[in-house]
Amino acid sequence: MHLIEPHIHMYSRTTDDYQAMFDAGIRAIVEPSFWLGSHRRYAGTFFDYFQLICEFEASRAERFGIDHYAAIAYNPKEASNTALVDEVLAGIDEYLAHPRCVALGEIGFDKLNDAEEVAFRAQLEIARDHDIPVIIHISHTDKLACIRRMIPIIRSVGHDERKIYLDHNTEETIEIALSETACLCGLTVYPISKLEPEQASAIIAQHGADRILVSGSADWGISDPVSLPKVLARMKADGHDDATLRKIGFENANAFYSQSPKWKPKFDLEPWPIEKRQP
Question: How far apart are CA 154 and CA 121, in angstroms?
């Protein structure tokens, strides 16, 4: 089975990770915009980064046999600079229109403050007005308070919830996310701050697989770019059937991103000869 990794930050990863992902069966990925390790001071820095993940990172992935798409957004961790939020959002349409951009994201909350809510609402409205998928980031801490704050905003903006990927759920939030929204609900398998494979398998056993996405969300931290295959292996060992494995490994992510007409992944890419893999 070809696998789709629906949320991963390859800007922070090495070419060894691309090789490991290909070897584990991953053939298509989506890279949402994220925090680069320090707060950016200029809109142009955001725009250069958006272009990089849409173009250079797609080219780097292709050399290793993986089809790479991106999602573009202003990250919630930097939302306190409200003037910069306004400047970036005023110029974001060019990057949302890029052939490799299949969603707006990730947006959401970090510290659950009012500035983050303004940026979150504004970008959710952009996604609604463009009728595009959107990836939402539930905060690393105070997850229950975060999702309780998010749901009324999602409802008031009125974007089609089937085009929303509400990510970073845990046992604390998944029932609320599934029962109170129509969103796709993400489980992030990421040590320490999120979930382990056995936790993801147990959540899927309890709640079903129909609206669940699983990702590694690998980034600068202690994370694993082949978390998805490890979750599937754990699920198989736990007795999940092949149809459930296929939903988690391929079908749900493919259906979600297929809501963008630009999502046309090539699952038959082959790694380039090693002497041609250097950008």
Answer: 8
